[in-house]
Amino acid sequence: MRKIVIDIDNTLWDFAPVLYERLNDANPGFPRPSEWRSWSFWKGLISAEKLYRTIRDVHMEQDRFEPYSEAHFFLERLKTDGFYIVIASHREKETFSSTRKWLEKNALPFDEIHLSYDKTVLFGECWGIIDDSPVTLDKARSAGIVRAGLKNPWNEREDHPLFANLDEIYDYLQTECTSEK
Ligand SMILES: [Mg+2]
């Protein structure tokens, strides 16, 4: 069975605008997501501690937010295709129940939830990963696993398979599966 690791933020839902709103409340004039041109866009604008606290607060309220409209169908098709789905998010352990509640509330199919600060621990036994982080995608390339993500200002300059939506990612994964046969 193929194991696939799937990110949450900016992969299964539109996290950036929510994060932006909160960063802008705390720090008026904060650049908009369209100006987040690298993974370290926040450096020099806000402390790491404040950023992570803001992100954690959003994660604790995860069930207030909607997934992308294609998220359910995307995961359902992967399930039907026989994938083992690991939902993996860079978030604090205490957000586990709000994360699970959100997945269940939105009927998003999964087999396992992995919350940590290092997704590479999953790479050894996984076929591929879907993530928007250029750092994670770089690591996936080095590990030689299939990788893809939604295209965003912070990753579009990097050399990775990036797509406009989850339907396009699904089609890409199909071609990757076929090319292995
Ligand atoms: Mg993400």
CA-to-CA gap between the ends? 14 Å
Give the helix level as a range of percent. Answer: 25-40%
User: How many discrete domains?
Assistant: 2
- Tell me the major beta sheet: 6 strands, parallel
Tell me, what is the CATH class of the largest domain? Alpha Beta
Mind telling me which CATH architecture of the largest domain this is? 3-Layer(aba) Sandwich
Beta-strand residue fraction: 5-15%
Q: CATH topology of the largest domain, what is it called? A: Rossmann fold
Number of strands: 6
Tally of contiguous helical segments: 6
Q: Estimate the global geometry from the Cα principal axes.
A: globular
Characterise the protein shown here:
With 181 residues, the chain is α/β, with parallel strands linked by helices. The protein has 2 domains: 3-14 and 67-180, 3-Layer(aba) Sandwich (Rossmann fold); 15-63, no CATH class. The protein contains 6 helices and 6 strands; from the N terminus they run E-H-H-H-E-H-E-E-H-E-E-H. The chain has helices spanning 15-26, 48-60, 71-80, 96-105, 134-143, 166-180; strands spanning 3-6, 84-89, 112-115, 128-130, 146-150, 162-163. The protein has a 6-stranded parallel sheet, sandwiched between helices. Helix 1 (15-26) crosses helix 2 (48-60). The longest helix has 15 residues, at 166-180. It is globular and about 50 Å long. The two termini are 14 Å apart. The mean pLDDT is 95. Magnesium ion binds next to loops.
Précis, in short:
Helix content is 39%, strand content 13%. The chain is an alpha/beta fold.
